[in-house]
Specification:
Elements: E1 8-13, H1 15-18, H2 28-43, E2 47-52, H3 68-92, E3 97-101, E4 110-111, H4 114-122, E5 126-130, H5 140-151, E6 155-160, E7 165-166, E8 178-179, E9 181-183, H6 184-190, H7 197-205, E10 210-214, H8 220-226, E11 232-235
Parallel strand pairs: 1-2, 1-6, 2-5, 3-4, 3-5, 6-10, 9-11
Antiparallel strand pairs: 7-8, 10-11
Length: 239
């Protein structure tokens, strides 16, 4: 019988991952596959919070000459599109889901209320947190770290297009070295592209481990929750 290593998790899915092989927009076939993996976790009794990025629709700094605040708010709106798409995929396979947004939009989602989010999780509902932190100059990585701390998640599962953390870009350098374990300080000192420094510091201050793994194989989500050795673990004790 499969037993989950974690009772409550924060799953951070990059926007690029939702685009699948298309590179832009939402690959609904791939999103449905991710939804099926999340359903498997729900069956195991895992309480799941999710934060989605928006890189498949909008990158905050891609507007040439655009005001940074405006660009960031556009990115927050894009995360809501991704959140609703993922919610639809989950609901279609019978997974009870709630979307909570940091920017109020009552017609499509609940506003973020911590106590309500906790209650949803306790009832076995998947909660998708959208619109980042609701503030410009903060990334969805920071939103994932913040929400993870607020819902008392045991771990952040960072699902990316790369299968872990490397000393340099493995897509460019053939000799890139993959790390199996890192400490928060290692990440900050080496300037490794795990999460941004604000998010990493927040995880360090609240002792929330970060497991970085590739979403090229959607079953990696379940493997991570079961405690199998995949990706790169960033924690206080990692050496």
């Amino acid at each position: 019988m499969e037993v989950a290593k974690y009772k409550r998790i924060m799953l951070k899915i990059s926007g690029e991952a939702l685009a699948g092989d298309t590179g832009f927009g939402i690959d609904f076939e791939f999103t449905n596959v991710i939804a099926l993996q999340i359903k498997e976790l729900v069956k195991l009794g895992v309480e799941i919070g999710i934060v989605v990025g928006a890189g498949n629709i909008w990158r905050g700094r891609s507007g040439d000459g655009m005001d940074r605040t405006t660009a960031d708010y556009m990115g927050m709106m894009a995360t809501c599109i991704n959140a609703l798409a993922l919610q639809d995929s989950l609901e279609n396979i019978g997974v009870n889901t709630r979307v909570q947004t940091a920017i109020e939009m009552k017609a499509v989602a609940e506003p973020f209320i911590r106590r309500k989010a906790m209650r949803h999780l306790e009832k076995g509902r998947v909660v998708i947190f959208a619109a980042g932190t609701g503030n410009p100059y903060f990334s969805t990585d920071t939103a994932a770290a913040l929400r993870a701390a607020e819902i008392e998640a045991e771990v952040i599962l960072l699902a990316k297009k790369v299968d872990g953390v490397y000393d340099k870009d493995p897509h460019i350098y053939d000799d890139a070295k993959k790390f199996n374990k890192l400490s928060y300080i290692n990440v900050l000192e080496k300037g490794l592209q795990v999460m941004d420094s604000t998010a990493t510091s927040l995880c360090m201050d609240n002792n929330i481990p970060i497991l970085v793994f590739g979403l090229d194989k959607p079953e990696n989500i379940k493997k991570a929750v079961l405690g199998e050795k995949i990706g790169t673990l960033v924690s206080d004790s990692a050496k």
